[in-house]
Each structure stands twice: as C-alpha cells, then as structure tokens.
Fold each of these.
Amino acid sequence: MTFPGARLLEGGAMAAEIRTAVAEDVASFTATQGRPPGLRVVIIGKDAPSTVYLERILRGCAKVGIDAGFVELEGEATEAKVTATVRALNDDPSVDGVIVQMPLPGTIRLRAVIDAIDPAKDIDGIHPLNAGLLRLGYDGFLPATAHAAVEILRRSAIEIEGRDAVVIGRSAVVGMPAAFLLVREDATVTVCHRRTRDLAGHVRRADIVVVAAGHPGLVTGAMLKPGAVVVDVGINVVDGRIVGDVDFESAREVASAITPVPGGVGPLTNALLLTHLIRAAERQAAERQASRQPAVTGGDR
Ligand code: NAD
C-alpha cells in the first residue's frame, strides 16, 4: 500500500483557535482580578540562541492581553543570582508563570534552577513535582513541546489507543514526557535514544513516530512503515533554513500523515503554553481567594 502525499498536520490553525479561546479567558481574568495574567522569562545573556524563540512567545502573549516580559541577567550571572531572581518572581503576586531560558550557561546547575521554580508557576512543566504528576497520571503542568506533540495527534483525530508508538529522544523536557503522554493515551510506547541499537528496526514497526532528537534527516521514508503517522519535533538550522529531524520529502511518500517543520508542532507549542499560563493564573487566584475566606470554626468538635 502506498500513501502518495501524506496528510499535513499543521499546527497554525489549531494554534489560532487556541489563542482565540485564551484571549477570552485572559479578558475575563483581567476583569475579575483587576490585572492581566503575568509571565516572566528569565534570560541569562542576551545573545543566547533561544532568545529569538522566547521573543516570539512574548509577542504571542502580548497579542492575547498577557503581561509578558523578560528579566535579563548578565551572561556571567552566578547560580545564586539566577535562583534568587526566580524566587523573587515566585513571590511576586502579579507574576503567574515563570520560564527560565534554556540551555543554561555551563556554570549553573540545571537542577538548582528547576528546584527554585514554584511548581504553581512552572508553566513549562520542568519542576520535579510537575514531572512526577505527569508520570503518575495526575494533573500538573506539562512540558509544552511534549504536550503539543501529542495534542497535534488528538486534534487531527488520529487514533492513538492501542497503536505502536516510537519516541526518538529521551530528554526530560521533550522525549520522556511525550512518551508518558502517549502511554496515558493507551499507546504501546518504545523510547529510542543515542544508544539504541537498530533504530530503523524500531521505527519500522511503529504506527506513530515522534522524533525529538535534534538531528536533521535522522528518520527517512525508507525507515517508516507505510501509513505511519510522523510527528517531527526537531528544530535544526541547515544552510540557513529551519528543518526538522525527519527527511520530509522521502517520509511524506510513505507516511499517512506528517507534521511539517516549520508549521507543525512549533506553533501549537507556543499556543499551549498560553493555556498553561492562564490555568496557572486562575488556579493561583482561586487559592488566594480561598485563603482569604474566614476559616470555618465551630461548634461540633
Ligand atoms: P536533547 O539534546 O536534550 O535530547 C535529544 C535526545 O535525542 C537524546 O535523548 C538523545 O539520546 C536522542 N538522540 C540524539 N541523536 C540521536 C540519534 N542519532 N539516534 C537516536 N536518538 C538520538 O534535545 P531536546 O531538548 O529533547 O530537543 C529535541 C529536539 O526538539 C531538538 O531539535 C530541539 O530543537 C527540538 N525542540 C523543539 C521544540 C518545539 O517547540 N518544536 C521545543 C523544544 C525543543
């Protein structure tokens, strides 16, 4: 069986739909709380490659009425300075979500920074508490990229339950959470990584292939099972162009559906992050409200 020209799973329209809903939620939050929801992104050194990506997130926030901004630290900032900055944002009641730019400079321990983030403001799901909630199947904040990788399948009405899925990449922020989410959706999941022997053999058996390796051209059409669904999370710059981890031209001849790069998982990731922020803002507002209620005391002890 051949699938000439796979269906394109595009994230742009999905993202637009999400942003419209978020804008309404933001307006009602702003009306009831007297301030917009707030996001702060801590960046360490202005020249880091992820700054462009973060600027795009901030522009997306501004469009829906979120008060979003950078907190800039010197490239030489110490770990103590970074964690103190994060804690100050935790304590700021006008800030509902905190993101720290990754990757961190080599002098700063990732774990120290992750631990400093208040789990209630951890809208990209990197704190161990949120990672643990995901692992146990409870409701916490999901890493937005992993969330988008699975949400793009759900919103495209692609069946996940009972299907064989391969996730390539086992990072704490993308590969592993995507694998846990697919398990939660009742897929049978294999996680592949740099030390996997016979990657092609695993991919060949998969109905769904999620690729998050940071390696352009890692998955080709020749490796895929005919009719497989391919979610390409990779973002790489090759000859000045942004490409994913999948050789798109050969893969689209064999797959039944495939996400383009750019225009697939990326736009959905940014839109889902906004939904995480409004959820964080609403939850914290509800908690503040509850803590202001007089304690029920009384009678029947
Ligand atoms: P990472 O470097 O932390 O992890 C990469 C993983 O891929 C590792 O587990 C590694 O073992 C595996 N891997 C690498 N080369 C491999 C190979 N040849 N064969 C098998 N496994 C291999 O990267 P990350 O932070 O998880 O990001 C993965 C990709 O996703 C990158 O391209 C990154 O730019 C992209 N990304 C996209 C978004 C988005 O919104 N679409 C967001 C974050 C990251």
Note: The chain has a mean pLDDT of 95.
Amino acid sequence: MSLVVVGSIAFDAVKTPFGERERMLGGSAVHFALAASFFSDVRIVGPVGDDFGDAEYGVLHECGVNTDDVERAAGDTFFWAGRYEDDLNTRVTEDTRLGVFEDFQPKLSEASRAAEMVFLGNIQPDLQRDVRGQCDDAALVGLDSMNLWIDTARDSLVAAVSEVDLVMLDEAEIRMLTEEQNLLRAARTLMELGPQTVVAKQGDHGAALYREDEFFALPAYPLETVIDPTGAGDSFAGGFLGSLAASGGEADGPALRRATAYGSVLGSFCVEEFGTERIQRLTREEIDERYAELQGMTALDAAPA
Ligand code: AMP
C-alpha cells in the first residue's frame, strides 16, 4: 500500500545530558519516513533549501524513501534547536527558523495524490489541511501536531483533526487540546470531532490506543540508556502507519495492536542514538527481534480457573 508523509524536513541542533549535535538531519517527515520505510514504500512531501545536499538526500534514498515530492527552494532548510533536561522528558525549544517553510505551498504529484495512506506530520495545521484536501482518495489519514500549534492555531488544528481518521498526539497535548484531564474522556472528545482512532503517546511509559469500543495499551520497550529522544514520536508514527500499510491498510483490532507494537519498537531504536543515526543502520531482523521481546514481556496468561 502506498504511504505519503508531509511534515518538516529539517536540520536539528540538539543538546542532551549525553552530548550534542550542532546540525544533523531531522524533521517530523524525515523521522517518520525512515521508520516507515522498513514496512512499505513511502513518499516524503516537504520543502528544503539550497543547504540540503546529496548527503541528506542520500540518507533518505538509502532507506528507499521516494523524494520526488521534496521541493527545493531558494533559502534555508527548516532549522530547529532544542535541549533536554536531565530526566530527558522535558524538552526546551531554543530556536525555530522556518526558512523555506515560510512560503511553502504543497503541490502534490499525481502519485502522491493517489496514496492510499497519508500521514500529516507535525507542521502548521493549515498546511496539513491543504495536503489533506489534495488526497481525497486516501483510505486512511493520520495526523500529529504539537503544543506550539495548540497555542497559536487552535481553530485550524481542530478543523484539521475533524478531517482525519487517526490522531496521534502526546498525552499532554491531548489534554491541552481538549481541555479535559481524564485521558479516556479526552480521547472521546477528539473522536467526537471525527477520527475513529486516537493514539496517546506517553514517552517512556509507552502508548495507549482508543477507539469507540476498544482500548489497548503497551509499555515502552525498556532501555537502560536513552541518548536523544528527538524523533521518537515520529518514528513511532512511522512504525505504526508503515505496519498498517504492510497489512493492506486493515485497521481492525489485531492490526492496530501490531501497529502500536511496531511503533513502540521503532521509537525505542530512535532514542538509542542522536537524530537518525540508529535508524539509518537498523535492520528488519533487529526490529522483529525486539517486537518478539515486547510480545513476551506483555503477554498475559488466562486467569486460573
Ligand atoms: P518528535 O521528537 O518526534 O516530537 O519530533 C522532533 C522533530 O520535530 C525534530 O526533528 C524537529 O526538526 C521537528 N520539529 C520541531 N519543531 C517543529 C515545528 N514547529 N514544526 C515542524 N517540525 C518541528
């Protein structure tokens, strides 16, 4: 099944208690696409500047990501700088430079418009809606966002949410967007807007999946050392939607549970090193090995008679 992602394609500067990188490949669409590429064909949509070179394209191509809809414009590629506190859960944004995103007007190719699955990665919600409008035939459209857009473009974001099938947000963002502290109620509030599925990402606690008549939760894969959490959420989303695409887009209970587990596995690999470093040399065998471990850790026997 064909999968398209729109989102940021970025250079990131990141500081964590374990070190720093001054400029590395990042962006919501990049992390998503690399993770999804282990499961299905994926096309990436977004703008880059003249500073985006062969090395960066090479990382995407090496993983088989189709870059025909990457638009090159005069100016700088989107740049984000952030640092993490000692507990790695608190992230402080130090700089955001929109660069070529400022004038970005998505024009999807025929091939991308015909995609059966679409992920609207974290970008300005009006851009997400624009892309959504160009992909009328998609059987499943998912969306991610962040606190910045809840603060600055709430109405657009609510409109974008009402136009998709699946919403994937951090637990705190779901509470913030719905102004509802109880997560189950908050998920129901989002579902009332339109989406049939809500996934709450819970960082190192895992993820929870809500549907009208279904609930599923999975802990995160336990890691002794986390180096850089940047991109974990997007890698989770890439593993999740990639896995759904690989099972023919079927979004029933078992497929969604499997997708949650693959999302968790990809997120866990992402944080083991800076940026895309770990995912770039990841293999499908390593993914399936970790999936099996997660399965063993979470399987319950029936209660004794
Ligand atoms: P995540 O850690 O999965 O939430 O996403 C991290 C990625 O989001 C980084 O690689 C950044 O380049 C990207 N990012 C940060 N802020 C923004 C923003 N305002 N719009 C789009 N992408 C962003």
Note: The first strand starts at residue 3 and ends at 6.
